[in-house]
Amino acid sequence: MAGLAIPDLDIDQLTDAETAPPVGWQTVVWNDPVNLMSYVVHVFRTYFGFEPDVAHRLMLAVHHDGHAVVSRGPREVMEAHTQAMHEFGLWATVRQDAP
Amino acid sequence: MNERIVVVEVSGLEALHLAGLVGQFRDLLRETRRADDPAVARLTPDAYPDDDAANREFHRLTSEDMLTRRAEDADTVLRTLGMDGADLDPGSDPDETIAVALGENEAHAWLRTLSAVRLVLATRLGIQTEDDHRPGDPRFGVYDWVGYRLDGLVAALER
């Protein structure tokens, strides 16, 4: 994503998904050089229903940290989210919560 | 409840170029569809980069459907552009503005298609980082133009 100057953010405090107790699996979105920042924010808002500021901060976390956890929960649900991200052209993966 | 409508305005010439690009994209998905094509691979990424078995299963369950839906999105773009199989009227003015009215589902088909066309172009151009840009190469002009249109459509949907 194209660059912007922004302050560092604590992504652990971004969303309910981030602070909810882990249920085993995560959907992770990874940075890529092609997708536009505005588009990524729009996808996060419309698909996950995040508030604009949350969607924006998650997008910046992807951009600056290289990736961000956008959802946590059961494996099947995380796979469905990952497939949806792929349909929007975002690069997403499924992984287990860190022990 | 009324469905929200977004209007995209393009010149006749732009519409023609866009239809050409999206038509090629649809051919890539529907006719060529080579799994070893890096552009097709970029449209169906690995969900489990560290687990071959889970990754294969994910691809087996999702990749075909995903490429089929992308081709249907491309159908929607061409249909709403009024250019699915149709030639531009030779008597029309290429500078004349065409207003394309999109419902929300159609607008999202446009978003997914424009972003996917950019991914395919980026793969063909070998774009690996945000700084990979050759201003003299006209193909980058096309890549930037699709991005400009995508950004404008996102802004219209956010209003």
Q: Give the CATH level 1 class of chain A.
A: Alpha Beta
Number of individual domains of chain B = 1
Structural class of chain B: mainly alpha
Total of DSSP H or I helical runs spanning 4+ residues of chain A: 4
CATH overall fold name of chain A: Ribosomal Protein L30, Chain: A
Order of helices and strands of chain A: HEHHEHE
Mean pLDDT rating of chain A: 86
Strand order of the largest sheet of chain A: 2-1-3
Helix percent of chain B reads 55-70%
Characterization of this structure:
The complex is a heterodimer of chains A (99) and B (159). Chain A is α+β, with helices and mostly antiparallel strands and 99 residues long. Chain A has helices at 16-19, 37-48, 52-65, 75-87; strands at 25-30, 67-73, 91-96. Chain A has a three-stranded antiparallel β-sheet. In chain A, helix 2 crosses helix 3 (52-65). Chain A starts with 15 loop residues before the first helix and ends with a strand. The model of chain A is unreliable at 3-7 (pLDDT under 50). The longest helix of chain B is centred in the middle third of the chain and has 30 residues, at 52-81. Classes of the chains: A alpha+beta (99), B mainly alpha (159). The interface between A and B is medium-sized, with 23 and 34 residues.
